[in-house]
Structures are given as C-alpha cells and as structure tokens.
Amino acid sequence: MRRAEEYVSRDMDPLSGRMWGHVYVLGAPDVIELGKALYLKFMDKTMLDFTVYPSVLRMENELVGMVSSLLHGDDEVVGNFTYGGTESIILAMKAARERFERSSSGTPEIVLPATAHPAFRKAAEYLGMRVVTVKVDGQFRADLEDVKGKLGGNTVALIASAPNYPFGTVDDVQAMAELALDRGVWFHVDACVGGFLLPFLRELGEDVPPFDFSLEGVSSVSADLHKYGYAPRGASIVLFRNAELREGTVFAASKWPGYPVVNTAVLSTRSAGTLAASWGILIYLGREGYRELAKRVLDARRRMETGLRNLGYKVLGEPKSGILAFTSDERDLAALPREMRKLNWFVQYQPGSREMGFPKSIHLTVAPGHDVLVDQFLKDLSSVSLTVEEEIRLPEGDLVRALGIEEGKLPEDFTVINRLMHEAPPDLVEEVLKTAVNRYLFKPPSSGP
Which of 222, 173, 179, 426 is nearest to 320 (CA)? Predict the structure, then answer.
C-alpha cells in the first residue's frame, strides 16, 4: 500500500477539479460514495454466468429499461451492459456486420464522419471491415451530401455522433436517420458522451434535436454510464431497436465438455461492481438529479465559452453538450498543456492534422464541479503567454528516444511531440505511436518493481 501511495502521489487528483478531461463525476460527492458502496458490495460477483447471481441479471435488465426509456425506446428495444463505449460499439458493429453478411458477400464497410470516435476504426480492424470516411462541414458535423455519395452496396452501417468527442458538436442525426431508412442501412448513433446529458439539456430549454429511438431510422445507440451517467469506470450500454437486430452479438458455445457458455458482451468474466453502481446511481439521481447536474455543466460551459472568446481564443463549432474545443493562430497550443500543467491544470491537446484540414486545438470536458473553477482557470490561462513556434526542430538520432520516450516512462514534456503530430501524415503518426507503445512504454522494468 505504501508503494501504491508513492506511485499515486505523482498523479493528478481526478477529483481536484483541476482536470478538464477524463473526469465526469466531479462536484457530486454523494454520488461517488454511493457508487463506491455498491461497487464493493458486488465487486466479487461475476457477470460471466448469469444463472449464478439472479440479482445481477435483474439489475442489468432494469438498467437497460431505464436507459431505453430515457432514449425514447419502446417495448421492443433491448440492450446490454458493457464495460465501455468501445465494447458497446464493437458489439453494435458486429451485429450490423452479421445482418449484412446474411444477404451480401462484398467487403463490409462502415461509413462514418471524420470526427467519429476511433473505437469504430478499432471495431473495423477487429471485425475485418473497411472504413469509409465522410467529410465534415464548417461546424464539424457530417457533410450530408458526402454521406449520400459514400453509402453503397457494401455499407454495413452509417455512424453519427451525439456529440463527437473532439468538438462536442452533434451530427444532423435526423437527416442521417432518414437517409439510412431510405437506403435500408443500419444506422448507429454514438451517444457515449451525450446519452446521459443531452436529454436533460433539452429539458433545460437547450436546442437539442432528436438523436435517439424517437427517430425511426435509428438501429442502435451506445451511451456511456461512466461519463455523464456519473458511474464508476467502466460502464456503458448498447441498445438495439429490437431483439432481431441484437442477435449477432450473442455468443453461445456448447462444443466442449464444460458448462454451456453464453455471452452478451465481448468480455466474459466481469465484476458486477460497476453494473450495480450504475443501476443504483440512476435510481438515486432520477431525472431531477440528472437535470440539476446538467444545469451546472451547462452554466460552466457557457461561462467558459464566453471567457475563452474574451481572451482571444476561437471556440470551434457549436458545442451542444459538455465538451468544447478552442484554437488560436497567435498562440502555441502545442505548449499550452505544459504551461498550464505548471499551474496544476490538465488540458488535452488535440493535434488535428494539416493533411486532413483539422486545426490544432485544446479540448475541455466540463464536469458539474467545474462550475466553481471556471473563473480561476480563465485567470490562469490569461497569464500564460505563448507565442507561435514558427519552425519545428526535429530531434536528432533515434526519433522515439529523442522525443523523451524511455522504457516504461512517459516523456516529461510533450510539446515537440504535439507539434509533430499536427504536421506529420496521420499514417506516420499512427506507426510512431504503435512503436512507442509496443517497444518502449508497455515494458516490464528490468530491475523489477
């Protein structure tokens, strides 16, 4: 335990309010404590075999029902609990591929906007599918004309984001649903970020167009409980319009001497802790509790947008949830995370891509507890003076080591890496990242722990 305390002392505290990314359940200590208690109560119960613990099956069904109701599902909608948005997305894409392969023999394709989460690309890589990328418009939403041109006979699924992660903007889900329905294409809405926030922002009077099962063309939806559902990691839900569409996700095996194995998720053995915590938190908060937390997120996001513009930054697109991104032509954004870290803030740099036409930006995920910290953040941001670095100086020698990446250790300064990622072709960036992770970062220490 002492060693663990020593290790964690070097990390930022996710509940400090100083992190503007990867943290959602902030400013709600009662929710955190309830989640911990339920997690511990069910931590040792497995979701591997649903015949062993009836309480686990009951909780999952009740949880799916609550989420379905929130997202305008009818009595036909079914779904399952997963350990994260990526798992939910993989399951949805597998179901879509199975449906496609029953009537087609071509190379299956996923059509998605360039802003869609990389989990879809991972799903395509795992499932042997091809990705067809759609351009986005000036508001970073899927270009509908390009969508029409990219759909074809090998299309397995069309993807929309509600919202996308980089900019917090929402695709025109209604128009895409109508197009998918007309073409007979599976349409998946990735609401991993917005599923437990957008409905309550709408109740607060925000302009939130329909994005869920209220639209006839929507086949499946993913929504993360461990984001604005405020549950512990990992917890997500994938919903299908009916049981027939879900068929491709259910795995069963009896061709061995052991007990019959039936899985409704990619993972088999899973602690029921996060399921129980998610179930309890949804019941505890109810619509009123979620609406109140959404109000705090909305207030903090609006004040942040105004403050950023007053400081001369440009907010990208029209943020619709708790995410926003900002950019600047006058400041060196690649160095901004380093300078803000000196002031004990975490912000996430998004390199964009010169080749793809995306600007460099800083991503902010706004949590309820940020409502009392916006002013201090903006004050500190205004004190950081950053001039644009006109020339990128490449380090000499072994590129990975020269960038400060050592065996099992992250570099202390990511500034040069940040600049390179914007300028380099995406394919090269991916290869360098794979090499760094495979050969340097994830490697047991030679001297032992």
Answer: 173
Q: How far is CA 139 from CA 109, 115, 169, in A?
A: 25, 11, 7
d(CA 140, CA 326): 13
Distance CA(124)–CA(128), nearest Å, equals 6
Q: Specify whether the CB–CB gap between 47 and 56 falls below 8 A.
A: yes
Residues 298, 89: Cα–Cα separation, whole Å: 27
Domain locations in the chain as residue ranges: 29-282, 399-441
Taking residue 322's Cβ as centre, other Cβ atoms within 10 Å add up to 28
Q: What is the distance between the terminal CA atoms of the chain, rounded to a whole angstrom?
A: 13
pLDDT digits (tens, 9 = 90+) for 390-437: 444 545 445 555 555 555 556 666 666 666 666 666 766 666 666 666
Which tokens go with 96?
A: 């879509």
Q: How many CB atoms are closer than 10 A to CB 295?
A: 16
Check pLDDT > 50 for residue 239: yes
Closest by Cα among 172, 168, 200 to 187: 172
Q: Residue holding tokens 């999952």?
A: 60
Average pLDDT of the residues in 39-56: 93
Q: Rounded to an integer, what distance in angstroms lies between the CA atom of residue 240 and that of residue 78?
A: 5
Q: Tell which wins on pLDDT, 265 or 441.
A: 265
Q: Which residues make Cβ contacts (< 8 Å) with residue 83, sequence separation at least 6?
A: 234, 235, 236, 265, 267, 270, 274
The stretch 9-22 carries a mean pLDDT of: 90
Q: What is the pTM of this model?
A: 0.89
- For 268-280, what is each residue's pLDDT tens digit? 899 999 999 999 9
Give CA angle at 56 (50, 62), nearest 5°: 115
Distance CA 440, CA 339 (A): 26
Mode of pairing for the β-strands spanning 109-113 and 155-161: parallel
Non-local (6+) Cβ contacts of 310 within 8 A are none
Q: How many residues does the chain have?
A: 449
Higher pLDDT pick, 411 / 156: 156
pLDDT band at 74; cut points 50, 70, 90: very high
Structure tokens at 211: 């994005």
CATH fold, domain 29-282, is Aspartate Aminotransferase; domain 2 (3.40.640)
Side-chain-side CA neighbours of 420 within 13 Å: the count stands at: 17
